[in-house]
Structure formats: C-alpha cells, structure tokens
Amino acid sequence: MARPDDVPTILGFVRELAEFERLLDRVCATEDDLRASLFGARPYAEVVLAESDGPVGFALFFHNYSTFLGRPGIYLEDIYVRPEARGRGVGRALMAYVARLAVERGCGRFEWAVLDWNSRAIAFYRSLGAEAMDEWTVYRLTGKPLERLADAYVPSTARRGT
Amino acid sequence: MARPDDVPTILGFVRELAEFERLLDRVCATEDDLRASLFGARPYAEVVLAESDGPVGFALFFHNYSTFLGRPGIYLEDIYVRPEARGRGVGRALMAYVARLAVERGCGRFEWAVLDWNSRAIAFYRSLGAEAMDEWTVYRLTGKPLERLADAYVPSTARRGT
C-alpha cells in the first residue's frame, strides 16, 4: 500500500488519468488534500502502487456497502497505468490485488464506474467477468444545490435522536 | 442515527425497498449480517430512521471518495419511505439530513444511484438539483468471477510492499 511520501506520485497519476478522461479541468485536489484524506486520522480510501523501476500505475479504492448482501464491498475509484507500461498485465495485476483484498475481507462485490466511450477498458472489464449495471444511473448533488438541501434540514422532522 | 435494536426494522425496510425495485430475490442479508456490518467493530455504513408514530422510512449511507476533489463524499445506498407515509416530505427530510451531514463533514459530493424506470424518484432528485452521471456505467464483479480474479493475484507483480 502507498505511504504518505507517495502523495506527489498519486496526485500525478490522478491528473494523468483525468487528462485521459478529458476531465482535467475538474481536478482541484492538492497534495495537502490527499495527505489529509488518505493518510490522516480517518483515511477515506486506500491506494496501491504498481512498480516497475519506479511507479507505473495505481489503484485507489474504498469500502462501499450492500444492503442486499448485508456486507461491505470494495469500490474502485481510480485505476491507471502509464501509457509506456501498458500491455504487460499491470492493470490486471492491480485489479487482481484489489479482488484478493475483497475476498480476504469478506466483501461480496467489487465495483467501479467507466466512461461509456472507453471501449478498451470496457472490453478488459468484460474479460474479467464484470457485469454492467446498465439499468442504474448515478445522480450527484454538489456545490450550491448540495448546500441548499443541507440548509433545508430541520432537526425535528427526519431523524431518530442519537 | 439508528441503534443495534433497530436491525429488524432496517432489514424490513431493505426488503420492502427491494420488493419495490423488483429485486427481492437478490436480498440475502440476515439480521446478523446487518448487526455485524453496521454496528460491529468496523461499521461500514450509517443509518438514519424517519419516525412518525414509529419508523416510516430510512436512509443508509457511507463515505465514498473523490480523487478529483481530494475529499470524501457521501454515497446514499438506500432511501425508502413506506407508501402510507409518502407525500409528506419524509424523503426530502431524509435527503436533507444526509446533505447536512455531508456539508458538516466537509464532503464535496452527495451521490446515489437510481433505477432508470423509477421516473418518480428521478423527478424528485432533479428537483433537488442533482445531476445525472449519464456518461458513466458501473461494472460489478461478484461470485465466481470475483474469486477467479482474486486467485490470479501474484504478490510480486502489482504492489509496493506495505
């Protein structure tokens, strides 16, 4: 697993992946953000680096949860292999590492999301036996609409007191 | 937030929601599973109950993570309101409660998935300002294919030693 001094490497990979995804303008994470959220008092995700004469790729993941199974799963937020290191099974090895962890930790599922135009990645995922959750769409609330909904919270209505 | 003695209520809601989603045959969680994974040494998700003369709904969520933001988010796995309690703002109050937590905890995003045929829910989510992540599809590895990939893991290739 990665260590705090890998943070610059991790941020470099995050930016390279975002560039490939044509989403680089969305990256606002700083090294301090990653250090605090990945290696602070409450780590929110885990990172594994692939190495071959230095780091050539990474996978970043966290535990999700299935109420249908009553068990945690693993959600892979990012997987990336540098262009010059592709075609040598590095991506597959990273996926296998995370799958191994999932099984060891009693997780029922290993999941991730892919951009619909990334046909090469989709073919790879299908070759592993992964199934597309085609009938589901993720919705996201962020920025002002998130703040607006948060402000609408009235303590007495929704919740059983802790 | 819910307590261990709410587990039977939570499992009841999980099953009612699954029935509505036409996925009841996929539910294999038991009360023991939920107790261990939600209220054990490492709780994998949090639950809030909506009450009105007894429990009428729930939301179950956990922290996800965004590498683009370098911050955690909140992922809502389940939200459910009993039919007889609908139309009174209970769902909105549950969503607002979770949004409030997200803001308080410095999360950049609040996300969830919806079945594409659930047009009533989709209209509700859009009314909150949520954006559909239409260009992404979730892939899932489970059962035998997950075990097969886990078995393919060879310690030396993928990973920087811990």
Explained architecture:
Two copies of one chain form a homodimer. Chain A has 162 residues and is α+β, with helices and mostly antiparallel strands. Chain A has helices spanning 7-20, 31-39, 90-104, 119-127, 143-151, 155-158, and strands spanning 46-51, 55-66, 71-81, 109-115, 131-132, 136-142. Helix content of chain A is 37%, strand content 28%. In chain A, strand 3 (71-81), helix 3 (90-104) and strand 4 (109-115) form a beta-alpha-beta unit. The longest helix of chain A is centred in the middle third of the chain and has 15 residues, at 90-104. Chain A is globular and about 55 Å long. The two termini of chain A are 36 Å apart. At the A-B interface, helix 1, helix 2, strand 1, strand 2 and strand 3 of A face helix 1, helix 2, strand 1, strand 2 and strand 3 of B.
